[in-house]
């Protein structure tokens, strides 16, 4: 799917780093820290800390606890330390393939991450919308411009 958009695994790994900034609702990570998705692929201390932020339906946690408001490469360091907040994040690292190498490179070299992220954002900006589909640049991502 992504290859037809001229995006590859490197692009997707770089793009995932956008979630170094932001928050997740408890419902999106509770299975990871409480059980259904819980396995040896999560740091036990991290799981305990996340449980504390997930005490009710309004619970939230930052994607990156160390630098939640800074766009940096901490997201990748967290993956290596088994502290990916969402299960889908953690699957980027630990499979032994080329993505592991990218995660390790980005965790060690924030400039490489920033460079690849910028290149990939330009690629994304060049992806044309589907034929015949109306296009809207939203003023607020979560709401249509009515």
From TrEMBL:
* Residue ranges of every copy of the Plant heme peroxidase family profile domain listed in the record: 1-145
Cofactor(s) this protein requires: heme b; Ca(2+)
One Gene Ontology biological process: hydrogen peroxide catabolic process
Pfam families the record matches: peroxidase
Q: Which domain of life is it from?
A: Eukaryota
Cofactor note (record): Binds 2 calcium ions per subunit.
SS bonds (residue pairs):
26-54
Q: Which residues bind Ca(2+)?
A: 20, 64, 67, 72
The record lists the catalysed reaction(s) as:
2 a phenolic donor + H2O2 = 2 a phenolic radical donor + 2 H2O
Q: Which UniProt keywords apply?
A: Calcium, Disulfide bond, Heme, Hydrogen peroxide, Iron, Metal-binding, Oxidoreductase, Peroxidase, Pyrrolidone carboxylic acid
Care to name a GO molecular-function term for this sequence?
lactoperoxidase activity
Family statement: Belongs to the peroxidase family.
Q: What is this protein called?
A: Plant heme peroxidase family profile domain-containing protein
